[in-house]
């Protein structure tokens, strides 16, 4: 092979390699869908930087999967904006989506988009702090991979579909601050793994808690992999879009810019705070080297937002679940048991009967009664059904409705009941 031919072939190989490496990862169908979503949302400032000339996997608020899913879009997070629109039906065309978040969008209206039912890989659904109306949709029970549902702080009404309790992987269901009616215990926040069989005392109960901790740890691991940089020193009267573009240009050398949260004071209309969220190895160190950079003629002060509790994600998840369950447990007063039983034996009796009702988060002993703290979907209703249970030896379990629950059972539950609880 002569020198000219060799040089030509080498140049051709280099050209092909360069073209291959520069090829966008983003799937063209996902890019087109995202641009339709942007248009439907009236081009909000948080995603105004989406440019069809760029790889959509690099767009803020978007995350793509790896080669195993052909780099399809797996996460869409649009938060903290004054979007005036409804959830675009095109979200249902992001067929590989695992995480969908529309959060703190007070002017997002309408019902929860039915096309979400097409997202068969969806694991995390977070639609909160919006003005969404209508019912909690029955179609969510079709999404068998769902692990986390947060529909809190909306204007949803009606009852809660019982079919949600059958979702095999559901770990967290958060429904507080809506106008839900019906079963009181269902209209509060729920953290509960569905019962596939009647639990046998504490072992099965502990298993459900371990599942919940696992779900929370997975979510916290995702959050912990991202670097949060607090930005100060900018002109607070800046145009948000101008500031967003300037910060994106500044930080894109540090890693993947996942989001830029710019919050505006609703009264003064001045920018109140700014947070840049980055993904990538060494992103924090690279970002902090930009401290003192000029944007709009102002010198920026940058600092990393760090956790100060000293806990690992495993420890933090376990603490979150324990605190959440304890703080939102139903407290059941129990009498009718043999008062001569040693405390250890009495506790065994209580576990035997109440573990099937929900998560027992605490047992408190009084002089003439025991308080069983229960957490979970319909736990109160199942517990009161134990009233009159024969314990043997002439003793009969007495489990009355708590006074406030009895009043609510005898009278219609007001539509705004959840507005008083959180």
UniProtKB/TrEMBL annotation:
Intracellular or extracellular location(s)? Cell envelope
Query: What family is it from?
Result: Belongs to the polygalacturonase-inhibiting protein family.
Q: Write out the entry's keywords from A to Z.
A: Leucine-rich repeat, Repeat, Signal
Stored PANTHER family = LEUCINE-RICH REPEAT-CONTAINING N-TERMINAL PLANT-TYPE DOMAIN-CONTAINING PROTEIN (PTHR48059:SF13), POLYGALACTURONASE INHIBITOR 1 (PTHR48059)
**Gene3D superfamilies, alphabetically?**
3.30.70.330, Ribonuclease Inhibitor
User: Per its UniProt record, what InterPro entries does this chain match?
Assistant: Leu-rich_rpt, LRR_dom_sf, LRR_N_plant-typ, Nucleotide-bd_a/b_plait_sf, PGIP, RBD_domain_sf
Superkingdom field:
Eukaryota
How is this protein named in the record? Leucine-rich repeat-containing N-terminal plant-type domain-containing protein
Which range is the signal sequence, renumbered to this chain? Answer: 1-22
Domain Leucine-rich repeat-containing N-terminal plant-type, chain residue ranges per copy: 27-64
């Amino acid at each position: 092979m002569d020198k000219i031919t060799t040089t030509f072939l080498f140049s051709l190989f280099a050209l092909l390699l360069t073209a291959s490496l520069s090829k966008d990862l983003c799937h063209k169908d996902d890019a087109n869908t995202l641009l339709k979503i942007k248009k439907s949302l009236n081009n909000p400032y948080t995603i105004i930087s989406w440019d069809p000339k760029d790889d959509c996997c690099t767009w803020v608020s978007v995350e793509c999967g790896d080669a195993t899913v052909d780099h399809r879009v797996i996460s869409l997070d649009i938060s903290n904006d004054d979007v005036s629109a409804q959830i675009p039906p095109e979200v249902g065309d992001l067929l590989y989506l695992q995480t969908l978040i529309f959060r703190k969008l007070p002017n997002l209206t309408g019902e929860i988009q039915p096309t979400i039912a097409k997202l068969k890989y969806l694991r995390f659904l977070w639609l909160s702090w919006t003005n969404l109306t209508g019912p909690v949709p029955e179609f969510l029970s079709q999404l068998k991979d769902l692990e986390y549902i947060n529909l809190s702080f909306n204007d949803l009404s009606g009852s809660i579909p019982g079919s949600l309790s059958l979702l095999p992987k559901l770990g967290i269901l958060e429904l507080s601050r809506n106008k839900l009616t019906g079963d009181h215990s269902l209209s509060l926040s729920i953290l509960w793994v569905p019962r596939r069989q009647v639990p046998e005392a504490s072992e099965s109960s502990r298993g459900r808690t371990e599942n919940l901790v696992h779900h929370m740890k997975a979510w916290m691991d995702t959050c912990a992999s991202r670097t949060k940089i607090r930005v100060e020193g900018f002109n607070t009267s800046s145009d948000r879009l101008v500031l967003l573009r300037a910060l994106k240009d500044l930080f894109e050398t540090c890693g993947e810019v996942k989001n830029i949260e710019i919050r505006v004071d609703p009264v003064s209309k001045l920018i109140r705070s700014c947070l840049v969220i980055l993904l990538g190895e060494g992103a924090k160190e690279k970002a902090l080297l930009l401290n003192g950079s000029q944007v709009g003629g102002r010198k920026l002060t940058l600092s990393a937002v760090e956790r100060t509790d000293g806990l690992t994600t495993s420890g933090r998840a376990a603490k979150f679940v324990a605190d959440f369950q304890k703080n939102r447990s139903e407290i059941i007063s129990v009498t009718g048991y043999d008062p001569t039983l040693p405390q250890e034996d009495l506790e065994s009796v209580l576990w035997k009967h109440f573990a099937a009702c929900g998560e027992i988060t605490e047992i408190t002993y009084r002089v003439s009664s025991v308080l069983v703290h229960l957490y979970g979907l319909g736990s109160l209703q199942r517990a009161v059904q134990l009233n009159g249970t024969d314990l043997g030896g002439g003793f009969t379990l007495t489990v009355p409705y708590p006074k406030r629950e009895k009043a609510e059972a005898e009278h219609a539950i007001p539509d705004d009941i959840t507005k008083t609880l959180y």
